[in-house]
From TrEMBL, chain A:
InterPro entries: AAA+_ATPase (IPR003593), ABC_SmlMolc_Importer (IPR050093), ABC_transporter-like_ATP-bd (IPR003439), ABC_transporter-like_CS (IPR017871), ABC_transpr_FbpC (IPR015853), Mo/tungstate-bd_C_term_dom (IPR008995), P-loop_NTPase (IPR027417), Transp-assoc_OB_typ2 (IPR013611)
GO annotations of cellular component type: ATP-binding cassette (ABC) transporter complex
Coiled coil: none
PROSITE patterns, per the entry: ABC_TRANSPORTER_1, ABC_TRANSPORTER_2
Domain ABC transporter as annotated: residue spans: 2-234
Superkingdom of this protein's organism: Bacteria
TM helices/strands, residue ranges: none
GO process terms (BP): quaternary ammonium group transport
UniProt-recorded name of the protein: Fe(3+) ions import ATP-binding protein FbpC 2
Keywords for the protein's UniProt record, in alphabetical order: ATP-binding, Cell membrane, Ion transport, Iron, Iron transport, Membrane, Nucleotide-binding, Transport
Keyword Membrane: yes
Family matches, as PANTHER family: SPERMIDINE/PUTRESCINE IMPORT ATP-BINDING PROTEIN POTA (PTHR42781), SPERMIDINE_PUTRESCINE IMPORT ATP-BINDING PROTEIN POTA (PTHR42781:SF4)
C-alpha cells in the first residue's frame, strides 16, 4: 500500500543528508515500526510520507497513487494520512469533541463518528474538556482518536510514547495498539526504543544515518541482524575479536565479523565453546548481576548473568548456534 | 473570534469606500474646473484660513489646501510635474520661492493689481512670485544691560566687545540662511564668511532652540543680544503665558544697518504654479491676498509687516517704530542660499 | 555510486523541477507583498546610482564626523537608558506585589502615546527661563536652579523616556510567560534572587529585550523634530539639511543609505552575537508568574523606582502640556478638534488594520511557500522602518506617480477626459506609505506569537485534510490574535504620531492631529500645540490601556 523508491532529502543545499536513497514497500493492514537513533532520518521519512515536506528526489506512492516525486507533490491535506504528533498537537482552544470534529467537518454523520472514536479511546465523558485539562496519556488517546476519525488510509505516529513515564508507557502502548488493530488501519510508528518496536510491530525498519539498513519481522531482526549496529539496537552484544576467538578456541570464518549476545553467554554451564575466567568485580543489578571478568588469556569482558551466587573462579562459554555472523 | 474578523473586514470595507468616494470627489471636482483652486502652503495660521474662507464667500471659488513645509511642497510639485494639481504655492521665505522658480515650478504673471501694490524689490524680477507680508531680522537686546546706542549693524556684532554675548539659532533656519545670503549679495562671499566665523566666535552658547528661546535666554542673562525675527517677538509680546510677556517686556528691539544697507527683511510670498489647472483663479487669489482687506487681516493677527503700503501695521509693531529696509531684490536671497549654507558649515555654525 | 547520485540530485535540471513543484500561490503572494513593501526602498536604492550631489564632499569634510559621533552617542546612551528604564520596570512589575502595581502596569506604556518631539518641547518648557520649574521654585521662595536640557544628553534622555515602553512591553511579556519556571529552578539550586536575575533571567530575556531595543534605536535614528530643536546634528537632521537647505535630494539619499547601513550593522551585529549562544525560547508556560510580597519599606522603594519613568515620561510632559493648554484654551480650542480626532482615529484604524493584515500575510505566506530563498526574502519587508519618513515618502511618490501618469494617459486616450491623480494624493497612497513604514512594528509582535505556536499544530490541521488558508482562520488566528492585536495597537499609536509622511502625502482636506500640532509648533507656537498634542495622547491612550489589558489577561 506504501511504496517508496530511492527517496532522498537534504538540508543546507545538499550539505547534509537527512535521508539518502531509501526504498521499501509496505503491505496493507500491518503495524510497522521505524527504528533509529536521533538524527537517523526517521522523522524526516514520516514527514515526507505525510507530505509535510518535499523530497529532493525519489518517489512515494500510496495505494498505487503517486503522491511525491521531483515533479509532483500532493499536498498534505489531500493525502488522507492520519498523523499523531510527538507532542500531540491538540488544538488548545478547542474542546475534545471539537478537536475530533475538526478533521471530519464535511462528513454527514460527523457527530456519530466523533462519538465512535471517543468511545474507541474510552474518553466519551470528557468530550467537553479542553486539552490542558487532560493528562498526558489522555491527550495521547485524543490525538489518536482525532487522527483516526477521518478513516485515514495510513496512520503515522511520531515517537508516540516518548512523553510518557515508564509505568504508563507499557500500559498505554498495548492500549493504543489494541485500538489501532481494532480499527484495521495500516500504521507506521517511529521510535528510538526497540522494546516498543519489538512489542507491537509486525515489521521493523531500521534507519542509520539516513539509510535503510534492514527491514524485517521482529524475530528475524533479533536472530539475523544484518549488521553490528542492528544487533546492538536489540540488546548488548559482545564482538568476538580474534583474541576472544582464540580464548574460546572457536574456529570462525576470517572474512566475517562475529558477535554473541550477552544473554547467550553461559556461566558454569555446558557449552560448545568454554574457557576459564576470574571474576574481578560484581555489581548487583536486581534482576541479575553484572560481572567484570578476566579471561585466563588476559582478555577483559563485561557480562550480565541471572546467577546470584558466583564464585571467584568460573567457566564461561556459548553455543555455536548463537554466534551472529555479519559480512563486513 | 469571528468578531475580530468582522472588525477587520469592516475596516477594509471602510477603507475601500473612503477611497472610492475620494476618487469620485476628485473626478467631479475636475469636471467643474472653474470652481476651485488648490493651494500648497507653508503658512498655517488661523488668519489664513479666515482669509481663504472670505475668498470663497466673495468669489464662490473653493479653496483646497495642503499644509506642509515649503521644502516638502516643492519636492511634491517637482515629482508631480505637469500633472500637479497645485495652483498656488505659498512659502514663508523668499529663498524657497526662488528655488521653486529655478526648478521651473512657477510661471510669470502679469497683473496690474500686483504690480501696483507690491514694491518691485519684493517681487521676483521675472514676476514668478510676489511677497504677501514682510518680517525683519532684528537685534533683541537686554534693556537693563545694553544701551541701543552701542548697537549699529549686523557687521558690528562680530566685534570682540560682543564676545560671549550673542545668541542666535541654528544655521538650518531659513532666516539665518537668508540673512547670510543678503550679506553675500551685499558684500561678497569672502566678507560673508568672515562675518559668520567671527559671529560664531562671539556666540554665548552653541545654537539651539527657536527664536523665542533666544529672546528668553537674553532675558535670563545667558547673553545680551539675540538676532531674531520681529514676527516671533510679536508673538512673545502677546503670549498667553505671563512669563513670556515678562520676557518680552525686558528686551528692546533694534533695527540694524539703518545707516548702511537697511535692515534685512524676508517675506512670505506666493507664486502661480507652472502647470496650474486653475490659473485665472490663482491670479485672482493672489490679488485678493494683497488687497487692503486681506492685508489688514495679516497685519493685525500675525505681527507681520504688510506689503500693501495703504495698510497700517499692528499696535505691537508700531511701538517698535518704523525702519529702513534693505532694498536688495529678494531673488538674490534664493540665489545665494546654498552658498550661505556651505559657508555656515565651514564656519562651524551648527 | 552514492556520490554520483547526490551530485545528480543537485543538477540544474532537477533543481528547476523542484522549483516548479515547490512554487505555489503563496510563493507568488510573498513575492508580491515583499515587492509592494520594498518598492519605495528599492526606488531610493536605485537613486544611489545617480551619485551624490556636488555638496557631498563638503558634507563629508565639514559635517559627517559630527553626524556620526552624535548618532553613535545617541545610540549608546539611549540603549543604556532604555535598557535601564524598560527592563527594571518590567522586572519589578512582573515579579513584585506593591501598591498601585496594576495602574502602573499600563501607565508605563503611556509615554508611547506622546510624540517625542512634543516631549522635547515640553521638557524645554519645564526647564526654560520662565519655565514651569522656575515658576514653581519662585512660588516656594527657592533659588532658580537652571538645568539645560537642550543638549546631547538631554536629547538622549527625552528620546529614551518617551520610547522605553517598547522594551518594557516586550520584556514584560517574556517575564510573565517564562520567568516563573526559571526562577523556581534557580531557587532549587540555591541561587539568590539578584544573581538569578543577572545570570539567568537577563540572558534568556535577551531576544525580547533586543526586539524592543531595535525598534527604539530605529526611532532614535529617525528622530528629526527633537534633535533639530535641541540643536543636535544627527544623520536625520543632516538628511533634511542636505535635501532642503543644500537642495540636493541625491545627497540626502546618500546619507539615508549610510543610515540604513548603520541600522543593518546593528541588526547583523546582534544576530551574530546571538548566534554564538542559541537559546530555545521553550514552550509557553501557562503558569503565571508568582509575585513576591516584600515588606512595606521595600514595597515603597519599588513603587518609587517604577513610578520614576512614568513621572518623567508621562506625568511631567503631560502636566506641562495641560498648563499650556489652559493658557491657550480660549484662542486655540475649537470643536473642530473633535472632528479632527475622529478623522485621525479612522486613518490610524484603517492603516493599523491594513498593516497588520499585510504583516500577517507576509509571515504566513512565506511559511506556506516552500521555496527557501523566498522565505528569506520576506525579511526585507521590515526595511521601511529604518528609513526616515520623508525619504519613504519620496520612495512612494516616484512609483505611484509613474503608475498614475500611465493610468491618466490611458484614461485620457480612452475617454477623452482628463482625471486627477488616482493613487497619489489619495488616502490610498497615504495608507500604503504608512504600511511600508510601520510594517516592522506589526511584524515583530505577530512573528513572536506565531513562533510560540508549535509547528506541529498547523501540521496536525493539514494532516486532518484542512488547507493552509482555513487552518489559519480556524487554528492559528485564535492562537495568535493577541499578537495581532498588540501589533494593531502599536501601529495605531505610531500612525497617530507620524508626521513627515503625513505632511507630504496627505490628500487635500484630510488632516491629522499630529499635523495640527506640528503647524503650531513649527511656527514657534509651542504652547498652542499643547491642545492637539493632548488630543493625540488621549486618542492613543485608549488603545494603549486596552493593549495592557490584553497582555495581562493572557
Amino acid at each position: 500500500m506504501l511504496k517508496i523508491e530511492s527517496l532522498s532529502k537534504s538540508y543546507d543545499k545538499g550539505k547534509s543528508f537527512a535521508l539518502r536513497d531509501v526504498s521499501f514497500q509496505l503491505g496493507e493492514g500491518d503495524v510497522f515500526a521505524i527504528v533509529g537513533e536521533s538524527g537517523s532520518g526517521k522523522t524526516t521519512l514520516i514527514r515526507l510520507i505525510a507530505g509535510l515536506e518535499t523530497p529532493d528526489t525519489g518517489t512515494i506512492e500510496i495505494n498505487e497513487k503517486l503522491v511525491s516525486s521531483i515533479k509532483k507533490n500532493v499536498a498534505a491535506e489531500k493525502r488522507n494520512i492520519g498523523f499523531v504528533f510527538q507532542e500531540y498537537a491538540l488544538f488548545p482552544h478547542l474542546k475534545l469533541e471539537e478537536n475530533i470534529l475538526y478533521g471530519i467537518s464535511k462528513l454527514k454523520n460527523k457527530k456519530q463518528r466523533a462519538k465512535e472514536v471517543l468511545e474507541l479511546v474510552g474518553l466519551s465523558e470528557m468530550k467537553d474538556r479542553y486539552p490542558h485539562q487532560l493528562s498526558g496519556g489522555q491527550q495521547q488517546r485524543v490525538a489518536l482518536a482525532r487522527a483516526l476519525a477521518p478513516n485515514p488510509s495510513l496512520l503515522i505516529l511520531d515517537e508516540p510514547f516518548s512523553n510518557l513515564d515508564a509505568m504508563l508507557r507499557a500500559q498505554l502502548r498495548n492500549e493504543i495498539f489494541r485500538i489501532i488493530k481494532q480499527s484495521g488501519v495500516t500504521a507506521i510508528f517511529v521510535t528510538h526504543d526497540t522494546q516498543d518496536a519489538l512489542a507491537v510491530a509486525d515489521e521493523i525498519l531500521i534507519l542509520q544515518n539516513g539509510k535503510l539498513v534492514q527491514k524485517d519481522a521482529a524475530a528475524n531482526l533479533y536472530t539475523k541482524p544484518s549488521s553490528v549496529y542492528v544487533a546492538s539496537l536489540f540488546g548488548n552484544t559482545i564482538q568476538l575479536s580474534k583474541e576472544l576467538q582464540s580464548a574460546f578456541e572457536c574456529p570462525l570464518k576470517t572474512d566475517c565479523c562475529h558477535a554473541i549476545r550477552n544473554e547467550n553467554i553461559a556461566i558454569n554451564d555446558e557449552c560448545d565453546y568454554v574457557t576459564n575466567a576470574t571474576v574481578l568485580k560484581k555489581t548487583f543489578l536486581g534482576s541479575g548481576t553484572q560481572l567484570l571478568i578476566k579471561l585466563d588469556n588476559g582478555e577483559h569482558l563485561t557480562v550480565v548473568t541471572k546467577h546470584t551466587h558466583i564464585d571467584e573462579r568460573i567457566t564461561i562459554g556459548f553455543n555455536s548456534k548463537d554466534v551472529l555472523e555479519f559480512k563486513e | 473570534m469571528t468578531k475580530h474578523i468582522l472588525i477587520v473586514l469592516m475596516a477594509l470595507v471602510l477603507f475601500s469606500c473612503k477611497n472610492e468616494t475620494k476618487n469620485e470627489d476628485n473626478s467631479q471636482e475636475s469636471k467643474e474646473i472653474s470652481q476651485e483652486i488648490n493651494v500648497y502652503t507653508h503658512r498655517h495660521y488661523e488668519a489664513d484660513q479666515e482669509l481663504f474662507k472670505r475668498f470663497e464667500e466673495q468669489t464662490g471659488i473653493k479653496v483646497n489646501v495642503i499644509n506642509a513645509s515649503a521644502d516638502e511642497l516643492i519636492q511634491k510639485m517637482t515629482l508631480e510635474g505637469d500633472k500637479s494639481p497645485a495652483d498656488v504655492l505659498i512659502t514663508v521665505d523668499a529663498g524657497r520661492l526662488h528655488r521653486a522658480k529655478t526648478s521651473g515650478l512657477l510661471q510669470p504673471i502679469s497683473s496690474m493689481i500686483l504690480d501696483s501694490i507690491i514694491p518691485s524689490h519684493l517681487m521676483d524680477t521675472d514676476k514668478n512670485w510676489f511677497a504677501l507680508t514682510k518680517r525683519a531680522r532684528v537685534i533683541a537686546y537686554a534693556k537693563d544691560r545694553i544701551k541701543p546706542e552701542d548697537l549699529s549693524t549686523y557687521q558690528d556684532l562680530t566685534d570682540v566687545k560682543w564676545n560671549n554675548k550673542i545668541l542666535i539659532r541654528s544655521s538650518s533656519n531659513i532666516y539665518n540662511q537668508s540673512l547670510l545670503a543678503s550679506i553675500i549679495a551685499n558684500e561678497g562671499e569672502e566678507k560673508a564668511k568672515q562675518w559668520a566665523e567671527s559671529l560664531v566666535a562671539n556666540m554665548a552658547r552653541s545654537p539651539k532652540g527657536n527664536d523665542r528661546d533666544q529672546v528668553k535666554a537674553v532675558a535670563a542673562g545667558e547673553g545680551d543680544l539675540a538676532i531674531v525675527n520681529t514676527y516671533y517677538i510679536g508673538m512673545l509680546t502677546n503670549s498667553e503665558n505671563p512669563e513670556e510677556r515678562k520676557v518680552a517686556e525686558s528686551i528692546g528691539i533694534f533695527f540694524p544697518n539703518q545707516e548702511t544697507t537697511g535692515t534685512h527683511v524676508n517675506v512670505s510670498g506666493a507664486g502661480v504654479a507652472k502647470y496650474a489647472p486653475n490659473k485665472d483663479n490663482a491670479v485672482k487669489f493672489i490679488e485678493f491676498l494683497v488687497s487692503e482687506e486681506a492685508q489688514e487681516v495679516f497685519a493685525l493677527s500675525n505681527f507681520e509687516y504688510p506689503v500693501n503700503s495703504n495698510v497700517k501695521v499692528s499696535e505691537t509693531l508700531k511701538k517698535w517704530g518704523s525702519f529702513t529696509e534693505d532694498k536688495l531684490n529678494l531673488s538674490l536671497l534664493g540665489e545665494n542660499n546654498k552658498k550661505a549654507v556651505i559657508l555656515f558649515d565651514e564656519a562651524g555654525w551648527k | 555510486m552514492k556520490q554520483a547520485g547526490s551530485s545528480d540530485i543537485f543538477s540544474i535540471k532537477n533543481k528547476l523541477f523542484r522549483l516548479k513543484r515547490d512554487s505555489n500561490r503563496w510563493s507568488i503572494i510573498t513575492l508580491c507583498v515583499v515587492f509592494l513593501i520594498a518598492l519605495p526602498v528599492l526606488t531610493i536604492a536605485f537613486k544611489l546610482f545617480n551619485g551624490p550631489g556636488e555638496s557631498w564632499t563638503h558634507i563629508v569634510k565639514n559635517l559627517l564626523g559630527d553626524y556620526v559621533s552624535n548618532s553613535f552617542y545617541l545610540l549608546v546612551v539611549c540603549s543604556f537608558l532604555v535598557f535601564v528604564f524598560g527592563v527594571t520596570t518590567a522586572w519589578l512589575v512582573a515579579r513584585y506585589e506593591f501598591p498601585f502595581r496594576k495602574q502602573l502596569e499600563w501607565l508605563l506604556i503611556l509615554p508611547l502615546a506622546i510624540p517625542s518631539y512634543i516631549v522635547a518641547y515640553a521638557y524645554a518648557g519645564v526647564f526654560d527661563y520662565g519655565g514651569s520649574l522656575e515658576v514653581i521654585q519662585r512660588f516656594f521662595g527657592m533659588e532658580f536652579t537652571r538645568v539645560d536640557v537642550m543638549n546631547r544628553f538631554g536629547l538622549a534622555f527625552v528620546l529614551s523616556i518617551s520610547l522605553f515602553p517598547y522594551v518594557y512591553v516586550s520584556t514584560r511579556a517574556f517575564f510573565l510567560n517564562q520567568a516563573n519556571n526559571l526562577l523556581e529552578a534557580s531557587r532549587m539550586l540555591g541561587v539568590g534572587e539578584i544573581r538569578t536575575f543577572f545570570k539567568l533571567i537577563l540572558p534568556l530575556a535577551r531576544p525580547a529585550i533586543v526586539a524592543g531595543l531595535i525598534l527604539v534605536l530605529m526611532e532614535v535614528l529617525n528622530d528629526y523634530g527633537a534633535a533639530q530643536y535641541f540643536g543636535v546634528n544627527t544623520f536625520t537632521t543632516g538628511i533634511f539639511r542636505s535635501w532642503f537647505s543644500l537642495e540636493e535630494p541625491e545627497t540626502a539619499i546618500y546619507l539615508s543609505a549610510l543610515l540604513l547601513l548603520l541600522v543593518f550593522s546593528i541588526i547583523l551585529f546582534e544576530k551574530w552575537q546571538r548566534r554564538k549562544m542559541q537559546y530555545s525560547s521553550g514552550k509557553t508556560n501557562n503558569q503565571s508568574i508568582y509575585r513576591k510580597i516584600t515588606n512595606k519599606r521595600k514595597q515603597f522603594l519599588i513603587f518609587c523606582i517604577v513610578i520614576t519613568p512614568v513621572l518623567f515620561g508621562f506625568f511631567i510632559p503631560v502636566a506641562q502640556l495641560i498648563y499650556w493648554a489652559v493658557l491657550t484654551y480660549s484662542s486655540v480650542f475649537h470643536y473642530e478638534f473633535l472632528l479632527l480626532s475622529v478623522q485621525t482615529f479612522s486613518i490610524a484604524f484603517i492603516t493599523a488594520a491594513v498593516t497588520v493584515i499585510l504583516a500577517t500575510l507576509l509571515i504566513f505566506s512565506s511559511r506556506w511557500n516552500r521555496i527557501g530563498f523566498i522565505k528569506n526574502l520576506s525579511k526585507l519587508g521590515v526595511l521601511g522602518y529604518a528609513i526616515p519618513g520623508a525619504v519613504v515618502a519620496i520612495g512612494i511618490m516616484i512609483p505611484t506617480l509613474a503608475i498614475d501618469r500611465w493610468l491618466m494617459d490611458l484614461i485620457e486616450k480612452i475617454s477623452g477626459q482628463s482625471f486627477g491623480f488616482i493613487i497619489h494624493g489619495t488616502l490610498f497612497a497615504l495608507v500604503y506609505a504608512y504600511a511600508v513604514r510601520f510594517l516592522a512594528v506589526a511584524y515583530n509582535p505577530i512573528e513572536s506569537t506565531t513562533l510560540k505556536v508549535s509547528n506541529a499544530i498547523p501540521d496536525a490541521s493539514k494532516t486532518l485534510g484542512v488547507g493552509n488558508f482555513k487552518t489559519f482562520f480556524k487554528i492559528e488566528y485564535p492562537l495568535i490574535k493577541t499578537g495581532m492585536l498588540s501589533a494593531f495597537i502599536l501601529v495605531f499609536v505610531d500612525v497617530l504620531k507620524e508626521l513627515p509622511l503625513t505632511l507630504i502625502l496627505k490628500p487635500f482636506q484630510v488632516n491629522t492631529l499630529a499635523v495640527k500640532a506640528f503647524e503650531y509648533a513649527s511656527d514657534e507656537r509651542v504652547m498652542e500645540a499643547a491642545i492637539p498634542s493632548l488630543f493625540i495622547i488621549f486618542t492613543a491612550a485608549i488603545p494603549v490601556v486596552f493593549l495592557n489589558k490584553l497582555l495581562v489577561s493572557k
